[in-house]
Amino acid sequence: MDIPQRISRIREIAYNIWFSWQPETHQLFSLMDRQLWEEINHNPVKFLLYLYPKRLDEAAHNSVFLELYDHLVEKYDRYLHKKTWYQRQAPSPGLLVAYFSAELGIHESLPVYGGGLGVLAGDHCKSCENLGIPLVGVSILYKNGYFTQKIDHEGRQKAAYPETNFNEIPISVCRNQDGTPLILPVPIKESIIYVQVWCQIIGRTHIYLLDTDIPLNNPDDRKITKQLYGGVRDTRIAQEIVLGIGGVRALRKLGITPSVWHINEGHAAFLILERIREKIKEGASLQSALHEVKARTVFTTHTAVPAGHDLFPKDFVLPNLGQMVVQFAISCEAFLSLGWDHEHQSFSMTQLAMKNAVRTNGVSKLHGEVSRKILNNDDITLITNGVHLPTWIAPEMSSLFAQYLGWDWMEDYTNQHRWKKIKLIPDQLLWQTHQTLKKKMISYVRYNLYQRLKRNLAPPSVILESLNKLNPETFTIGFARRFATYKRADLLLKDPDRLARLLNNPKQPVNIIFAGKAHPADHPGQEIIKRIWHLSQEKKFQGRIILAENYDIHLARYLLQGVDLWLNTPRRPMEACGTSGQKAALNGVINCSVSDGWWPEAFNGKNGFTIGGDQDFSNECIQDQEDERSLFHLLEQEIIPCYYNQKDHVPEQWICHMKENLISIPHYYNSERMVQDYYKKLYLPAFRGYN
Q1: pLDDT tens, 235-287?
Q2: 81-99 residue pLDDT tens
Q3: Considering 16, 350, 624, 653, which has the largest number of Cβ atoms within 10 A of its Cβ?
């Protein structure tokens, strides 16, 4: 790309993910070509490649553009050179955390994430970068990502896997000193797979992404990093070998020496075996190697569902890791014991990580308690998840907070006292801001819905009916997440007649917007999508039940910032945390949730609504019936009347809930507080304990 010298640093900013949480970035690129900026999903690298060259020359002579450009560059330089929280904490010389995760949801321009785990990992890396905690990330660069979703004319989910052009996204090839691409060997079965290493930059932090789609590999091996969570069991274990073993080798080749290794979910646990192998090769005994590796390793488990832990039979593990077994010079039984799950008689990635980590943590208080039972481990640390506030807050809401919390509030958002100033915001002004975001959300959802209806040849009358009922005056509920069955997206749909009366109340109408993907192998989850679609086609639900397709970070941002109520209905206690509700809360959106995940910690009786109680049920049918009854009662008797009890079109009592929500939630349920907890409870103890 040929960029005028006056604005040459725009390329540097485009390749640094720091751009993703800067409102000025969106303004800057939109000034050159707003339509293109939206079409390429806010990807600045692709934008610069496809932008008509004359636009760059025009921008370099446009005073408005140059003023914004200079401001952004100055802000960028100031950020890179500021003194960080970690530096102010009397940093520990030599600390460097290697953070391994199978997926990273950094930004919509790099679709190598599937859901909450990946987005949480992205927020974790961003906040470590913001605070200056020394961290290097390792993940996989999936050629086809997770999948893009389309809903056909019969409500069936269609999964497509478009290839990502790595030259069009903000990453670059890592190179050896002679300029050749950095490629390293990884043993799988009796073969050697070659892995190329790419780099993504977040501020000053580097994320290394592993890729097998190179000519050195045969066609089957090139497909190892093709899809996230795709393919058969052979592909799954091969991906995990590439991530764990290949990731360690990549850092060694780059000359990077971590002092703490963080395994984010069990997918990356093979890094333990590679580090043990290194120690044995250096002359250490197996026991000494085990002790040293364990002392430096921490592990985060994210699932409260037993089926969510990767298990492999022994006659599958041993052939895939045969070269590793030989180098360990121990029996097959002794090797398998490193991660053996006696209950399931299988090799468990979770057990491998947990047995060989000095500390293990759950991601909410309730999840920690559940994990202790599932994993039979009473020594699990509790660190509740949080979200990267600069990424998820709407610019309009951020500007409003700057007026009343102080212009520097974004530098101090973990300060609970500062958030009490939310009370100073006039109700009318807070409501106007929310309505602005709601209108933007509705406009985007209308576009999403129109594209699907038009593609599926829906009659014009159906299109008009569906679009016209989406308006900012109507109370709007959002439900968006993975369509796993335990999340119960269909809880409200079990009594269609009662739901129809609720949604079509002429004085208090309600809309529900659903969005989410079911894994292509999850047929029950896809049936839920199909049921939602069928109901949305019925006359009594047209325009009231909306199914938005292809849920991703971009769509999530609109929904989380613009709906009135964020609905969360998992079957307690299966939700590990559920960070989408935290993202909604920091935008003033009220949560209505089952008492699961993070919500039991956050709910104070005034900042949202809780479905049911804290009891657990042995019978799922009874649990579903009780939660359904509780949810309908809440909506009919409390939530909807509260919203529509308005004076001069302002719902005063609803705004009281919004303000209480803002005062009590964002200051704590953010990833800056979260990674400070990781630093204090996991990273620093592991670093000091080993030393």
Answers
A1: 999 999 999 999 999 999 999 999 999 999 999 999 999 999 999 999 999 99
A2: 999 999 998 788 899 999 9
A3: 350
List all residues 6 or more positions away from 138 whose beta carbon is below 8 Å from its beta carbon.
Answer: 98, 99, 100, 101, 207, 208, 209, 210, 243, 247, 250, 251, 268
Instruction: Report the distance separating Cα 532 and Cα 536, nearest Å.
Output: 6
Distance between CA 368 and CA 299 in Å, rounded?
13
In angstroms, the CA 461 to CA 467 distance is 10
Helix H or strand E encompassing 138: strand 135-140
pLDDT higher than 70, residue 676? yes
Tokens of 572: 């307690």
Residue pointed to by tokens 């993703």: 20
| Residue 482 backbone dihedrals phi, psi, to 5 degrees | -60, 140
Q: CA 447, CA 546: separation in Å to the nearest integer?
A: 12
Residues 6+ apart with CB under 8 A from 500: 540, 541
Q: What is the pLDDT of residues 307-353, one digit of tens each?
A: 668 899 999 999 999 999 999 989 999 999 999 999 889 999 999 99
How far apart CA 141 and CA 124 sit, in angstroms, is 18
Q: For residue 605, what is the DSSP state?
A: S
Termini Cα distance of the chain: 48
Contact call for residues 587 and 397 (beta carbons, < 8 A): yes
Residues 6+ apart with CB under 8 A from 267: 101, 102, 239, 240, 243, 310, 349
